[in-house]
């Protein structure tokens, strides 16, 4: 059968990255003051009683922590966004802010540090980008040799490119320039954009450090810093790089940190670099999983997985439905893709050994539904932000609960219903049984008897919560 095998590739070969960067002693520097509080509360928001704001948060499963948290803005008008931003938003056909935007915008516009904990696909990119545009427009223009005003750090090239696409859309009207820098491609074009001067830099940590060491840019003017998918960046072993980069940025900057989960490593990072912050959590912190996703656990033998997969694909899907299939290894990914193609499916593979060009092409095919079946490893799927995925299949079961939640969270987004099918092989995955049953119960899903039996047989159960450290090379 497929699967088996350990994780992909060795860890990162980047332990000495940033060795040439000295931490700056900002107490010795004369820092030019800058403006970061642009929030003007709309009269309708002011008039709304606190009790109503609490009730709205409860209805959206939003929990806020912090002193003097602003009330949410329920419409674009209430967010007091300037015309040039509002026009773009309306042009894109959004009728009202998503919950994370309603609560996140006033926090960000007040110039406060914030931690947003929410699933990917909740509209968080605009929750940090639109306030970033307003922040930039209030700062003095860039002079020759100046680095960016806004820095967005992301774990993977795919996510970085997606953030850039949003920047292009919403920054055009106010002539805000951006560039994206990531590894795996030649540096020439990136160097040119950085040296010409751009207000927003979106970067993966390793490549940004290369550019800083080479003097292609600097972070002296960064006053708005975003860490996107912070939990993934830590998982991928980027903590030393993040700390190096933060040491280059003035201490009174505004920081917005986003994460899908809230483990202690992420908490420590927030305490070190945000000191005082608002925290906004959408959905529950205990990784409950999403009620819009029907979770099917298929307890079977390794040898039955492929046949069962074909059955689910035939029974549940129309020709235009996208499916994302997770496998554990790169080799398994290629093998499964080949088999599916031989059986007449438009399948494509995505894993860490594919060239950047190939990955961009596969993503385009998947987004445009030219290929509706994408087979991927966890690392390759991290930066994938495709909203309308009908079904997620765990062909090889996840190694821990957080990965399981993360994977199934790729479907059932933006209020749509989704299906997550997971092949559970008791000999291999037995230790996960108890945790998975707990997740199924919390979202009122069907728990198969075979899974109950696996939980009974797996001595001690549990123990599936480990957080992988930097597997796969990016």
Automatic annotation (TrEMBL):
Residues 105-280 form the Helicase ATP-binding domain. It is an enzyme of class 3 (hydrolase). PROSITE patterns: DEAD_ATP_HELICASE, HELICASE_ATP_BIND_1, HELICASE_CTER, Q_MOTIF. Its EC number is 3.6.4.13. Gene3D superfamilies: P-loop containing nucleotide triphosphate hydrolases (3.40.50.300). A motif (Q motif) lies at residues 74-102. Residues 305-455 form the Helicase C-terminal domain. It comes from the Eukaryota. GO terms for molecular function: ATP binding; hydrolase activity; nucleic acid binding; RNA helicase activity. Keywords: ATP-binding, Helicase, Hydrolase, Nucleotide-binding. Residues 74-102 form the DEAD-box RNA helicase Q domain. Belongs to the DEAD box helicase family. This is RNA helicase. It comes from Skeletonema marinoi.
């Amino acid at each position: 059968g497929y699967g088996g095998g350990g994780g992909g590739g060795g860890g990162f070969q980047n332990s000495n990255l940033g060795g040439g960067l000295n931490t700056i002693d900002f107490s010795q520097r004369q820092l030019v003051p800058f403006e970061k509080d642009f929030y003007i509360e709309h009269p309708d928001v002011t008039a709304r009683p606190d009790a109503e704001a609490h009730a709205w948060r409860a209805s959206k499963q939003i929990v806020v922590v912090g002193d003097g948290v602003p009330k949410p803005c329920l419409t674009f008008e209430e967010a007091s966004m300037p015309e040039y931003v509002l026009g773009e938003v309306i042009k894109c056909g959004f009728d009202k802010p998503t919950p994370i935007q309603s609560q996140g915008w006033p926090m960000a516009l007040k110039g406060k540090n914030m931690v947003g904990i929410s699933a990917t696909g909740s509209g968080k990119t605009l929750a940090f980008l639109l306030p970033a545009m307003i922040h930039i427009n209030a700062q003095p223009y860039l002079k020759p040799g100046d680095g960016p005003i806004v820095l967005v750090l992301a774990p993977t090239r795919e996510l970085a490119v997606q953030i850039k696409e949003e920047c292009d859309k919403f920054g055009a009207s106010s002539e805000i320039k951006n560039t994206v820098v990531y590894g795996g491609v030649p540096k020439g074009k990136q160097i040119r954009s950085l040296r010409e001067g751009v207000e927003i830099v979106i970067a993966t940590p390793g490549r940004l450090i290369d550019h800083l060491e080479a003097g292609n840019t600097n972070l002296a003017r960064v006053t708005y810093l975003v860490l996107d998918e912070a939990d993934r960046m830590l998982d991928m072993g980027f903590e030393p790089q993040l700390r190096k980069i933060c040491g280059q940025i003035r201490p009174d900057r505004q920081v917005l940190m986003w994460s899908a989960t809230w483990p202690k490593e992420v908490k420590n990072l927030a305490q070190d670099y945000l000191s005082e912050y608002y925290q906004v959590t959408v959905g529950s912190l205990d990784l409950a999983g999403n009620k819009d996703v029907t979770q099917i656990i298929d307890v079977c033998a390794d040898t039955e997985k492929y046949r069962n997969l074909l059955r689910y694909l035939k029974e549940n899907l129309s020709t235009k439905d996208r499916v994302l299939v997770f496998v554990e290894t790169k080799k398994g990914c290629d093998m499964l893709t080949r088999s599916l193609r031989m059986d007449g499916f438009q399948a494509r593979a995505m894993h860490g050994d594919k060239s950047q060009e190939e990955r961009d092409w596969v993503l385009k095919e998947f987004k445009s539904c030219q290929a509706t079946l994408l087979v991927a490893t966890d690392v390759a799927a991290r930066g994938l932000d495709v909203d309308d995925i009908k079904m997620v299949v765990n062909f090889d079961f996840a190694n821990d609960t957080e990965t399981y939640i993360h994977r199934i969270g790729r479907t059932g987004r933006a209020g749509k219903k989704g299906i997550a099918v997971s092949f559970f092989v008791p000999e291999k995955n037995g230790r996960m049984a108890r945790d998975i049953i707990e997740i199924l119960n919390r979202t009122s899903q069907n728990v198969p008897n075979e899974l109950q039996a696996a939980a009974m047989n797996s001595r001690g159960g549990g123990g599936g919560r480990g957080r992988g450290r930097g597997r796969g090379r990016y």
